[in-house]
Amino acid sequence: MDHSLHVDVCLTSISSRIAEVHKTISTILSQDYPSFNVYLYLSDEPFLLDKGVSKSLPESLQRLIRADKRFQVRFVPNWGPYRKAIPYLMEHQQQHRVFVTADDDTIYPSHWLSGLVEQYKIHRCIICYRGHAIQTSGKSFMPYRRWMTSGIRQNPDIYIVPTGKDGVLYDTTLLHPRIIDVNTALKVAPTADDLWFKWHSAAVGTSTFIINSDYSTGTFDGTDFEESLYQRFNKGGKNDDTLVSLSKYSRDSLKFDMLTLSSV
After folding, report:
1. Does pTM top 0.85 for this prediction?
2. pLDDT tens, residue by residue, 189-242
3. Which residues are paired to 74 by β-bridges?
4. Cβ contacts of residue 185 below 8 Å, gap of 6+?
């Protein structure tokens, strides 16, 4: 395949995982894809599950920084999960970039990044390894937990929501420019950055292609099983509340209704 496309990989981490995140970074730096950089966005401020990360980084991370110029650590405001990609998007406004979001507790196989890029070059849309299809019933969304077991009927499709753990590839030109409004994001969808990103891609007509369309099958290995944002905040139905807030926001601010996939 053509490897000429440069890709940036973005991820974040929190205080309780900072001692182990080098394991994930090492697997990303070991990818067989030849042209990429890795940006780890951290904050020394407490927020949500994060107590804040000291700027005196663990030696394990410092070694990676010294050893590989492709890897950089940047300290940013603590916007929770939005630290993963919003700082990158703010820096590259109005530029055409392809970037991939990764999680800090996942072991990525060496073909991970090339697999995403290969499908991007075929489909020219958002690419993910795993995701759900949005389910609606009449004029409302079905409960988010129903999405998780609904299966994928059409691929690619504008109704597919990427889930972040196994990685998502984005093209900056396929996202609505209001996606970087982090203050509104934290009010509308404070722990559901995946839904915020979904709405801001669908608003400009962008579909998503899912590589592993059977959500019941295996996923990439992880480095730990610590409590996640989904388990703490979203598992009990918080995502359903977020969908209500996000729908109102998108109708008012994006002039777009996901339920009808139309301008309003």
Report:
1. yes
2. 999 999 999 999 999 999 999 998 877 676 788 776 555 444 444 455 789 999
3. 41
4. 79, 82, 86, 193, 196
Cα separation, 156 vs 70, in Å, equals: 31
- Give per-residue pLDDT as tens, 22-59: 999 999 999 999 999 999 999 999 998 899 999 999 99
**How far is residue 53's CA from residue 122's CA, in Å, rounded to a whole number?**
39
Q: 8 vs 22, 54, 132, CA distance in Å?
A: 17, 24, 24
Strand order in the sheet with 208-210: 71-75, 36-42, 7-12, 98-101, 168-171, 126-128, 208-210
Q: Give me the residues paired with residue 210 across strands.
A: 128
Compute and round to an integer the Cα radius of gyration of the chain: 18
Find how far residue 167's CA is from the centre of its chain.
7
